[in-house]
Protein backbone atom coordinates (compact mmCIF):
# COMPACT_ATOMS: atom_id res chain seq x y z
CA UNK A 1 0.00 0.00 0.00
CA UNK A 2 1.36 3.42 -0.99
CA UNK A 3 2.10 5.63 1.99
CA UNK A 4 0.35 9.02 2.07
CA UNK A 5 1.89 11.75 4.21
CA UNK A 6 -1.30 13.82 4.35
CA UNK A 7 -3.29 13.70 7.62
CA UNK A 8 -6.11 11.16 7.44
CA UNK A 9 -8.72 13.88 7.87
CA UNK A 10 -7.44 15.58 4.71
CA UNK A 11 -7.37 12.32 2.76
CA UNK A 12 -10.98 11.62 3.72
CA UNK A 13 -12.09 15.12 2.78
CA UNK A 14 -10.50 14.91 -0.66
CA UNK A 15 -12.03 11.49 -1.27
CA UNK A 16 -15.61 12.35 -0.34
CA UNK A 17 -15.55 15.56 -2.41
CA UNK A 18 -14.59 13.49 -5.46
CA UNK A 19 -17.02 10.64 -4.67
CA UNK A 20 -19.95 13.01 -4.20
CA UNK A 21 -19.54 14.48 -7.67
CA UNK A 22 -19.16 11.06 -9.30
CA UNK A 23 -22.36 9.77 -7.67
CA UNK A 24 -24.37 12.88 -8.49
CA UNK A 25 -23.28 12.78 -12.14
CA UNK A 26 -24.23 9.08 -12.37
CA UNK A 27 -27.68 9.86 -10.96
CA UNK A 28 -28.16 12.80 -13.32
CA UNK A 29 -27.27 10.54 -16.25
CA UNK A 30 -30.18 8.27 -15.28
CA UNK A 31 -32.55 11.02 -16.41
CA UNK A 32 -30.85 13.48 -18.77
CA UNK A 33 -33.98 15.59 -19.33
CA UNK A 34 -34.65 16.14 -15.61
CA UNK A 35 -33.44 19.21 -13.73
CA UNK A 36 -29.92 18.91 -12.38
CA UNK A 37 -29.23 18.40 -8.68
CA UNK A 38 -29.03 21.65 -6.74
CA UNK A 39 -25.46 22.01 -5.49
CA UNK A 40 -25.47 24.02 -2.26
CA UNK A 41 -22.14 24.78 -0.59
CA UNK A 42 -22.28 25.96 3.01
CA UNK A 43 -20.08 27.00 5.93
CA UNK A 44 -20.74 25.97 9.53
CA UNK A 45 -20.37 28.92 11.90
CA UNK A 46 -18.89 26.72 14.63
CA UNK A 47 -16.27 25.30 12.25
CA UNK A 48 -16.20 23.44 8.97
CA UNK A 49 -17.99 23.31 5.65
CA UNK A 50 -19.92 21.05 3.33
CA UNK A 51 -21.95 20.67 0.19
CA UNK A 52 -25.51 19.40 -0.17
CA UNK A 53 -26.52 18.12 -3.61
CA UNK A 54 -30.30 17.76 -3.63
CA UNK A 55 -32.91 16.76 -6.18
CA UNK A 56 -36.61 17.43 -5.61
CA UNK A 57 -39.11 17.15 -8.45
CA UNK A 58 -42.27 19.27 -8.50
CA UNK A 59 -45.38 17.36 -7.34
CA UNK A 60 -47.19 15.60 -10.17
CA UNK A 61 -50.95 15.28 -10.61
CA UNK A 62 -50.74 12.74 -13.42
CA UNK A 63 -51.81 9.69 -11.40
CA UNK A 64 -54.92 7.89 -12.59
CA UNK A 65 -57.97 8.15 -10.33
CA UNK A 66 -59.01 4.51 -10.47
CA UNK A 67 -57.50 2.11 -7.94
CA UNK A 68 -57.41 -0.56 -10.63
CA UNK A 69 -55.95 1.53 -13.45
CA UNK A 70 -52.39 0.93 -14.59
CA UNK A 71 -50.34 3.90 -15.74
CA UNK A 72 -48.43 3.16 -18.98
CA UNK A 73 -44.72 3.86 -18.86
CA UNK A 74 -45.03 6.74 -21.37
CA UNK A 75 -47.54 8.50 -19.08
CA UNK A 76 -45.45 8.26 -15.93
CA UNK A 77 -44.30 11.49 -14.24
CA UNK A 78 -41.40 13.05 -16.05
CA UNK A 79 -38.59 12.48 -13.55
CA UNK A 80 -37.02 9.17 -12.53
CA UNK A 81 -36.17 10.46 -9.06
CA UNK A 82 -38.72 12.03 -6.74
CA UNK A 83 -36.39 13.12 -3.94
CA UNK A 84 -32.65 12.58 -3.57
CA UNK A 85 -29.71 14.00 -1.68
CA UNK A 86 -25.98 13.36 -1.73
CA UNK A 87 -24.37 15.37 1.06
CA UNK A 88 -20.84 15.80 2.35
CA UNK A 89 -19.75 17.56 5.53
CA UNK A 90 -16.32 18.28 6.98
CA UNK A 91 -16.85 19.81 10.41
CA UNK A 92 -14.94 20.43 13.62
CA UNK A 93 -15.62 22.03 17.00
CA UNK A 94 -16.51 21.06 20.56
CA UNK A 95 -18.99 18.32 21.35
CA UNK A 96 -21.34 19.45 24.16
CA UNK A 97 -22.22 17.07 27.05
CA UNK A 98 -25.53 15.84 25.51
CA UNK A 99 -23.74 14.83 22.30
CA UNK A 100 -20.96 13.18 24.31
CA UNK A 101 -23.50 11.13 26.25
CA UNK A 102 -25.17 10.04 23.02
CA UNK A 103 -21.80 9.17 21.51
CA UNK A 104 -20.71 7.18 24.57
CA UNK A 105 -23.94 5.17 24.41
CA UNK A 106 -23.51 4.52 20.69
CA UNK A 107 -19.78 3.75 20.72
CA UNK A 108 -19.26 1.30 23.58
CA UNK A 109 -16.34 -0.40 21.83
CA UNK A 110 -14.12 2.57 22.69
CA UNK A 111 -13.18 4.33 25.91
CA UNK A 112 -13.87 7.95 25.03
CA UNK A 113 -12.22 10.69 27.15
CA UNK A 114 -14.50 12.18 29.79
CA UNK A 115 -14.33 15.98 29.84
CA UNK A 116 -17.24 17.99 31.27
CA UNK A 117 -16.19 21.07 29.29
CA UNK A 118 -16.68 19.14 26.04
CA UNK A 119 -14.52 17.28 23.55
CA UNK A 120 -12.81 18.71 20.46
CA UNK A 121 -13.89 16.69 17.44
CA UNK A 122 -13.46 16.39 13.70
CA UNK A 123 -15.94 14.59 11.46
CA UNK A 124 -16.03 14.08 7.71
CA UNK A 125 -18.49 12.01 5.78
CA UNK A 126 -20.73 11.47 2.80
CA UNK A 127 -24.39 10.59 3.26
CA UNK A 128 -26.97 9.90 0.59
CA UNK A 129 -30.59 8.83 0.25
CA UNK A 130 -32.30 8.27 -3.10
CA UNK A 131 -36.10 7.98 -3.41
CA UNK A 132 -37.15 7.05 -6.99
CA UNK A 133 -40.68 7.86 -8.10
CA UNK A 134 -41.59 4.42 -9.47
CA UNK A 135 -42.73 2.01 -6.70
CA UNK A 136 -40.81 -0.81 -8.41
CA UNK A 137 -37.49 1.04 -8.02
CA UNK A 138 -36.08 0.82 -4.47
CA UNK A 139 -34.93 3.56 -2.15
CA UNK A 140 -31.25 3.38 -1.19
CA UNK A 141 -29.17 4.85 1.62
CA UNK A 142 -25.40 4.99 2.05
CA UNK A 143 -23.10 6.73 4.51
CA UNK A 144 -19.34 6.61 5.01
CA UNK A 145 -17.65 8.68 7.71
CA UNK A 146 -14.47 9.35 9.67
CA UNK A 147 -14.38 10.74 13.21
CA UNK A 148 -11.60 12.03 15.48
CA UNK A 149 -11.50 13.17 19.10
CA UNK A 150 -8.46 15.36 19.76
CA UNK A 151 -6.66 17.33 22.44
CA UNK A 152 -7.79 20.98 22.71
CA UNK A 153 -5.97 23.41 20.44
CA UNK A 154 -6.43 26.90 19.02
CA UNK A 155 -5.99 28.63 15.74
CA UNK A 156 -8.83 27.26 13.61
CA UNK A 157 -11.57 29.39 12.10
CA UNK A 158 -15.03 28.58 10.72
CA UNK A 159 -14.77 27.49 7.11
CA UNK A 160 -11.20 26.22 7.49
CA UNK A 161 -10.44 23.04 5.60
CA UNK A 162 -8.46 20.31 7.39
CA UNK A 163 -5.34 21.31 5.48
CA UNK A 164 -5.28 24.70 7.24
CA UNK A 165 -6.50 23.67 10.69
CA UNK A 166 -4.27 23.44 13.73
CA UNK A 167 -4.69 19.79 14.74
CA UNK A 168 -4.32 18.59 18.32
CA UNK A 169 -3.18 15.13 19.32
CA UNK A 170 -5.66 12.47 18.22
CA UNK A 171 -7.11 10.74 21.29
CA UNK A 172 -9.56 8.49 19.45
CA UNK A 173 -10.47 7.83 15.82
CA UNK A 174 -12.77 5.53 13.92
CA UNK A 175 -14.51 4.88 10.61
CA UNK A 176 -18.11 3.86 10.09
CA UNK A 177 -20.64 3.48 7.35
CA UNK A 178 -22.72 1.17 5.24
CA UNK A 179 -25.31 0.96 2.50
CA UNK A 180 -28.80 -0.57 2.51
CA UNK A 181 -31.68 -1.06 0.10
CA UNK A 182 -35.37 -0.39 0.82
CA UNK A 183 -37.71 -1.73 -1.89
CA UNK A 184 -41.49 -1.43 -1.91
CA UNK A 185 -41.80 -4.51 -4.12
CA UNK A 186 -39.56 -7.53 -3.85
CA UNK A 187 -37.38 -8.45 -6.83
CA UNK A 188 -34.93 -11.13 -5.65
CA UNK A 189 -32.55 -10.44 -8.55
CA UNK A 190 -32.24 -6.80 -7.40
CA UNK A 191 -31.50 -7.86 -3.82
CA UNK A 192 -28.91 -10.36 -5.01
CA UNK A 193 -27.20 -7.76 -7.22
CA UNK A 194 -27.06 -5.19 -4.42
CA UNK A 195 -25.74 -7.60 -1.80
CA UNK A 196 -23.40 -9.28 -4.27
CA UNK A 197 -21.75 -5.97 -5.15
CA UNK A 198 -21.23 -5.13 -1.48
CA UNK A 199 -19.88 -8.59 -0.74
CA UNK A 200 -17.35 -8.30 -3.57
CA UNK A 201 -16.17 -4.91 -2.30
CA UNK A 202 -15.76 -6.31 1.22
CA UNK A 203 -13.96 -9.44 -0.02
CA UNK A 204 -11.11 -7.33 -1.39
CA UNK A 205 -10.14 -6.68 2.25
CA UNK A 206 -11.36 -9.68 4.26
CA UNK A 207 -13.88 -12.49 3.71
CA UNK A 208 -15.16 -12.00 7.26
CA UNK A 209 -16.38 -8.42 6.76
CA UNK A 210 -19.52 -8.93 4.68
CA UNK A 211 -21.21 -11.56 6.92
CA UNK A 212 -20.39 -9.60 10.09
CA UNK A 213 -21.61 -6.28 8.70
CA UNK A 214 -24.63 -7.77 6.93
CA UNK A 215 -25.86 -9.18 10.25
CA UNK A 216 -25.22 -5.84 11.95
CA UNK A 217 -27.22 -4.07 9.24
CA UNK A 218 -30.23 -6.35 9.71
CA UNK A 219 -30.14 -5.63 13.43
CA UNK A 220 -29.55 -1.89 13.14
CA UNK A 221 -32.32 -1.11 10.64
CA UNK A 222 -34.96 -2.92 12.70
CA UNK A 223 -38.13 -1.05 13.71
CA UNK A 224 -39.06 -2.53 17.11
CA UNK A 225 -42.58 -1.08 17.31
CA UNK A 226 -43.38 -2.62 13.89
CA UNK A 227 -41.38 -5.83 14.40
CA UNK A 228 -39.89 -5.50 10.94
CA UNK A 229 -36.75 -4.21 9.25
CA UNK A 230 -36.74 -0.97 7.26
CA UNK A 231 -35.63 -2.76 4.09
CA UNK A 232 -33.73 -5.81 2.81
CA UNK A 233 -30.45 -4.67 4.35
CA UNK A 234 -26.92 -4.38 3.07
CA UNK A 235 -24.02 -3.69 5.41
CA UNK A 236 -23.57 -1.46 8.45
CA UNK A 237 -20.58 -0.89 10.74
CA UNK A 238 -19.21 1.68 13.16
CA UNK A 239 -16.24 2.20 15.52
CA UNK A 240 -13.80 0.51 13.15
CA UNK A 241 -10.26 1.30 14.31
CA UNK A 242 -7.09 -0.44 15.48
CA UNK A 243 -8.56 -1.67 18.76
CA UNK A 244 -10.72 -4.70 19.57
CA UNK A 245 -14.33 -4.35 18.45
CA UNK A 246 -17.03 -5.78 20.69
CA UNK A 247 -19.25 -6.59 17.69
CA UNK A 248 -16.68 -8.60 15.76
CA UNK A 249 -16.21 -12.31 16.40
CA UNK A 250 -13.46 -13.07 18.91
CA UNK A 251 -12.09 -9.54 19.28
CA UNK A 252 -13.63 -8.78 22.67
CA UNK A 253 -12.43 -12.12 24.05
CA UNK A 254 -8.91 -11.77 22.58
CA UNK A 255 -8.53 -8.11 23.52
CA UNK A 256 -7.19 -7.11 20.11
CA UNK A 257 -8.24 -6.56 16.52
CA UNK A 258 -8.38 -9.66 14.36
CA UNK A 259 -5.45 -9.98 11.93
CA UNK A 260 -8.07 -11.01 9.36
CA UNK A 261 -9.49 -7.50 8.98
CA UNK A 262 -8.23 -3.97 8.18
CA UNK A 263 -7.07 -2.32 11.42
CA UNK A 264 -4.75 0.57 10.51
CA UNK A 265 -6.08 3.98 9.43
CA UNK A 266 -4.70 3.37 5.94
CA UNK A 267 -6.17 -0.11 5.50
CA UNK A 268 -9.59 0.85 6.87
CA UNK A 269 -9.65 3.92 4.63
CA UNK A 270 -8.87 1.67 1.65
CA UNK A 271 -11.85 -0.50 2.69
CA UNK A 272 -14.07 2.60 2.86
CA UNK A 273 -12.95 3.62 -0.61
CA UNK A 274 -13.78 0.20 -2.06
CA UNK A 275 -17.29 0.47 -0.65
CA UNK A 276 -17.81 4.06 -1.75
CA UNK A 277 -16.54 3.31 -5.23
CA UNK A 278 -18.94 0.37 -5.54
CA UNK A 279 -22.08 2.42 -4.82
CA UNK A 280 -22.98 3.35 -8.40
CA UNK A 281 -22.48 -0.24 -9.56
CA UNK A 282 -24.62 -1.58 -6.70
CA UNK A 283 -27.63 0.68 -7.31
CA UNK A 284 -27.87 2.41 -10.68
CA UNK A 285 -28.41 -0.81 -12.72
CA UNK A 286 -31.38 -1.67 -10.48
CA UNK A 287 -33.04 1.69 -11.12
CA UNK A 288 -32.38 1.39 -14.86
CA UNK A 289 -34.09 -2.00 -14.79
CA UNK A 290 -37.24 -0.72 -13.01
CA UNK A 291 -37.91 2.86 -14.11
CA UNK A 292 -40.11 1.89 -17.06
CA UNK A 293 -42.26 -0.63 -15.18
CA UNK A 294 -45.95 0.42 -15.26
CA UNK A 295 -47.58 0.82 -11.84
CA UNK A 296 -51.03 1.35 -10.42
CA UNK A 297 -52.30 3.85 -7.84
CA UNK A 298 -52.57 0.91 -5.42
CA UNK A 299 -48.85 0.26 -5.84
CA UNK A 300 -48.12 3.94 -5.33
CA UNK A 301 -50.20 3.83 -2.15
CA UNK A 302 -48.11 0.90 -0.87
CA UNK A 303 -44.91 2.75 -1.71
CA UNK A 304 -46.06 5.72 0.39
CA UNK A 305 -46.95 3.42 3.29
CA UNK A 306 -43.44 1.93 3.17
CA UNK A 307 -42.00 5.42 3.10
CA UNK A 308 -43.93 6.10 6.27
CA UNK A 309 -41.95 3.27 7.89
CA UNK A 310 -38.78 4.90 6.56
CA UNK A 311 -39.71 8.14 8.32
CA UNK A 312 -40.50 6.30 11.55
CA UNK A 313 -37.09 4.66 11.69
CA UNK A 314 -35.14 7.79 10.79
CA UNK A 315 -36.85 10.05 13.31
CA UNK A 316 -37.20 7.58 16.18
CA UNK A 317 -34.19 5.27 16.02
CA UNK A 318 -31.48 6.44 13.64
CA UNK A 319 -28.29 7.30 15.55
CA UNK A 320 -26.99 9.67 12.90
CA UNK A 321 -30.17 11.74 12.89
CA UNK A 322 -30.27 11.97 16.68
CA UNK A 323 -26.57 12.84 16.94
CA UNK A 324 -26.87 15.46 14.20
CA UNK A 325 -29.79 17.18 15.89
CA UNK A 326 -27.79 17.37 19.14
CA UNK A 327 -24.71 18.94 17.51
CA UNK A 328 -24.42 22.75 17.83
CA UNK A 329 -24.74 24.49 14.50
CA UNK A 330 -26.29 21.43 12.86
CA UNK A 331 -27.63 22.02 9.38
CA UNK A 332 -31.16 20.76 9.88
CA UNK A 333 -32.11 20.83 6.19
CA UNK A 334 -29.22 18.50 5.36
CA UNK A 335 -29.94 16.16 8.29
CA UNK A 336 -33.60 15.79 7.29
CA UNK A 337 -32.75 15.45 3.60
CA UNK A 338 -33.22 11.68 4.03
CA UNK A 339 -36.97 12.02 4.46
CA UNK A 340 -39.13 11.31 1.38
CA UNK A 341 -41.13 13.99 -0.39
CA UNK A 342 -44.37 12.12 0.38
CA UNK A 343 -45.33 9.42 2.90
CA UNK A 344 -48.55 7.86 4.15
CA UNK A 345 -49.99 6.34 7.30
CA UNK A 346 -53.22 4.37 7.44
CA UNK A 347 -55.10 3.15 10.48
CA UNK A 348 -55.02 -0.67 10.42
CA UNK A 349 -54.06 -0.80 6.74
CA UNK A 350 -55.31 -3.82 4.81
CA UNK A 351 -52.22 -3.94 2.59
CA UNK A 352 -49.30 -6.34 2.99
CA UNK A 353 -51.31 -9.49 3.64
CA UNK A 354 -50.14 -13.03 3.02
CA UNK A 355 -50.39 -14.15 -0.60
CA UNK A 356 -50.09 -10.63 -2.07
CA UNK A 357 -47.15 -9.01 -3.85
CA UNK A 358 -46.86 -6.65 -0.89
CA UNK A 359 -46.94 -9.64 1.45
CA UNK A 360 -43.88 -11.13 -0.26
CA UNK A 361 -41.89 -8.10 0.84
CA UNK A 362 -43.25 -8.29 4.38
CA UNK A 363 -42.02 -11.88 4.72
CA UNK A 364 -38.38 -10.86 4.26
CA UNK A 365 -38.79 -7.72 6.39
CA UNK A 366 -39.94 -9.89 9.29
CA UNK A 367 -37.38 -12.64 8.64
CA UNK A 368 -34.18 -11.25 7.07
CA UNK A 369 -32.75 -13.41 4.30
CA UNK A 370 -29.27 -14.31 3.11
CA UNK A 371 -29.16 -12.99 -0.45
CA UNK A 372 -25.69 -14.11 -1.53
Question: Superfamily at the CATH H level?
Answer: Coproporphyrinogen III oxidase, aerobic
Low-pLDDT stretches are 61-66
Assigned CATH architecture? 3-Layer(aba) Sandwich
Helix content: 25-40%
* Gross morphology: globular
- The overall strand count is 9
Q: What's the CATH first level?
A: Alpha Beta
User: Total domains, how many?
Assistant: 1
Report the mean per-residue pLDDT as an integer. Answer: 88
Identify the strand order in the major beta sheet. 1-2-3-4-5-6-9
Rg over CA atoms? 21 Å
Described by strand count, sense and barrel closure, the largest sheet is: 7 strands, antiparallel
Give the helices and strands as they follow along the chain. HEEEHEEEHHEEEHHHHHHH
Computed structural class = alpha+beta
Keywords: Oxidoreductase, Porphyrin biosynthesis
Pfam families: Coprogen_oxidas (PF01218)
Protein name: coproporphyrinogen oxidase
Organism: Panaeolus cyanescens
Description of the molecule:
It is a single chain. It is built from eleven helices and nine strands. It is of the alpha+beta class and 372 residues long. It has one domain: Coproporphyrinogen III oxidase, aerobic (oxygen-dependent coproporphyrinogen oxidase). A seven-stranded antiparallel sheet has the order 1-2-3-4-5-6-9. The chain has a two-stranded antiparallel ribbon with strand order 7-8. The longest helix is centred in the first third of the chain and has 23 residues. The radius of gyration is 21 Å and the shape is globular. About 2% of the residues have low confidence. InterPro entries: Coprogen_oxidase_aer, Coprogen_oxidase_aer_sf, Coprogen_oxidase_CS. Pathway: Porphyrin-containing compound metabolism; protoporphyrin-IX biosynthesis; protoporphyrinogen-IX from coproporphyrinogen-III (O2 route): step 1/1. Its EC number is 1.3.3.3. One of its GO terms (molecular function) is coproporphyrinogen oxidase activity. One of its GO terms (cellular component) is cytoplasm.
Amino acid sequence: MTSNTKPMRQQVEEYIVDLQEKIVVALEELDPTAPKFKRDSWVRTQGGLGKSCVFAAPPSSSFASSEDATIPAHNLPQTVLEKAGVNISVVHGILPPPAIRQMRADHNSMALPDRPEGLPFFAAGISLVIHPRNPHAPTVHANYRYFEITEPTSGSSPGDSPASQTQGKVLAWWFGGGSDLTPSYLYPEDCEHFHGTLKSACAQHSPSLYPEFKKWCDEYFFIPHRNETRGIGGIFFDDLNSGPHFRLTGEKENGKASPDRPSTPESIFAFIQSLGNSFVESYVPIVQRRIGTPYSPTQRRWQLLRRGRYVEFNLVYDRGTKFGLMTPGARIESILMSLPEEARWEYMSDMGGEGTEEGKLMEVLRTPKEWV
